[in-house]
Structure formats: structure tokens, C-alpha cells
């Protein structure tokens, strides 16, 4: 593997993760939430991830596993790895402690109100929300890094989709922490810190998985990444898109993301 490929994939993952900090900063410098934009953008992000998972990533995984294990063994391995990826992210969802839903959507308008006195319980709630989102970001970072390492063009699309997804999460962390402490600096810090989990996920993938990399590991990882991204789309992105706006806005974004992803893949045939 060329060093340049590593840094390209790692920097993409880093930028996607740090979008949580951008969402936090947006909450400080903008007075009103553009709910229509966020609804369409989150739907768009889901469309990109769902389409690319089923059409491109699973196809690459199947080619790799069938080539190594044969048509029957490879096909079973693809299906097992795909749903295994879903199972991993579902287990994280189930067991990560949080005192409120870590993906509950907040609006920038909430920042306009004066926070009350510092409340240790509220601070703990805000910090645990940041921790929960950070743990969710870990497999997202691994997925972005692995895809970008193998296919830089595809990696850019995934990184953009993940970054869009992370912006409202930055707002979701900032609002409770700000209310708990009255400090915009602390709110930004916790939001920023949760995004760092994504490049950490990339480094873990690099040091623990790549030393054993072969066609079977590649196919298994790619199918699992597809499962992770499909789960994230249905569990986080689409519900958030609908919460921010009307049902049809998220649907338009979803279809738009699929169309753009399909056209971009055709352009690189």
C-alpha cells in the first residue's frame, strides 16, 4: 500500500469526523436552523450510502469472496458479513449508555435562550451524549477509511455523506452541554472530541486489520461496511431527516442522493 493512499483515506475520515465540530460552531454563529436544508441533506446522505452499499460495495465484496471461496461459499460469506456489520452497530446501539437519545435532534434556536445555573446532572447527560455519539462514530470512521483506501473516488462520496450526517450531531451535543455549563467553549470541545472517534476508528482499522489483509478479509470488511452504512441510514439518517422536515423533503433528498451516486459511478466506468 502506498503511503499517499493511506494519508488520503485518513484525511477524508478526519474531515468527515470533524464535521461534528462544524455543526457545533454553526450553532454558535447562526440564529435559525434551516430545517428544510437539513431534512433534504440528511435524506441525500442516506441515499448515497444506501445506493453505494447495495450497488457498488456489496458487488466488490462478492467478487472478492466468490473469487476466494467459490460461488456458494463466497455468496454465503457476503450475506453473513453484511448482516454481521448490521449486528455490530446494533449491539453498539443497544449497550452504549446514554441518559437521553444520543441522536435526538436539537435546533440552533435553543442556543438563543440563556442557560440556567450549572447543573452537574445535566452536564453528565451532555457528556454521556457526546460519548455515545463518539462510540457510534468509531465504526463510521472505520467504514470511511476502508472504502477510501480501496477506492478513493468512492471514499469521497462516503466521506461527504458521513460529514453531512455529523453536522446535526454536533448541534445535538452542543445544546445540552451549553445548557449544563453556560460555556460555548466546552460545548464545542465535547462536540469536537466526539468527532475525533472517526479517525481513531481509521487508525484501529489500519493497525489491526491491514496487516492480515487479503481477498477474504477485504470482501468480509467491505460487506460489513455495507451493512453498517445501511443500518445507519435507516436507524439515524432517515428518522432525523423526517424529524427536521416533512416526509417528502427527506424522500426527495434520498432519491437525489441515489441519482447523484448512480451518475457518478457511471462516469467512472
Q: Measure the end-to-end span.
A: 23 Å
**Globular, elongated, flat, extended or rod-shaped: what is the shape?**
globular
Helix content range of the residues, please? over 70%
- Overall pLDDT, averaged? 79
Low-confidence stretches: 99-103, 108-113
Number of helices in the DSSP assignment: 9
Q: Report the β-strand fraction as a percent range.
A: under 5%
> Could you tell me the radius of gyration in angstroms?
19 Å
Structure description:
The chain has 269 residues and is mostly helical. It has one domain (3-267). It has nine helices and no strands. It has helices at 3-17, 19-29, 35-95, 120-150, 152-181, 184-195, 197-208, 215-244, 247-267. The radius of gyration is 19 Å and the shape is globular.
Short synopsis of the structure:
This protein is mostly helical.
Task: List its traits.
single chain; 269 residues; mainly alpha; 9 helices
Topology, element by element:
Elements: H1 3-17, H2 19-29, H3 35-95, H4 120-150, H5 152-181, H6 184-195, H7 197-208, H8 215-244, H9 247-267
Helix pairs in contact: 1-4, 1-5, 1-7, 2-5, 2-6, 3-4, 3-5, 3-8, 3-9, 4-5, 4-6, 4-7, 4-8, 5-6
